[in-house]
């Protein structure tokens, strides 16, 4: 289960990750493929979700947004999504992944489309400033009324 960083891919860091299939598989979902591009003009396969307590989660190295370049030495380039899924299903018990780390969230997938989560702002990012404005407005009204 050792990972090693390697150069390549236009200067982006590549890493080999070995996972042992658990009761629920490898413990992550993928998106992408030639027929379902997840990133514009890029038919690569990406990790869309790490399942809690799955093999990938427990290992800790694979991250959402990582690009999967190869499975057990088999290049994933130019595969349809269903063919990539089939490759993962038939990969065996011990699976070697060659991945490319996302550098910044804006350089790769930024939402988990299709798994019930929205890619919008968190609710707190909207409520906290709104609540602060409401409190300030009430304070201004009360101060104005005191002066009258």
From TrEMBL:
Superkingdom as given in the UniProt entry: Eukaryota
Segment forming the signal sequence: none
InterPro entries for the chain: PDZ, PDZ_sf, Synaptic_Scaffolding_LAP-MAGUK
CDD domains, alphabetized: PDZ_SYNJ2BP-like
Identification of the protein by name: Synaptojanin-2-binding protein
Family annotation (PROSITE patterns): PDZ
Transmembrane segments: 121-142
Gene from which the chain derives: SYNJ2BP
Species name: Apteryx mantelli
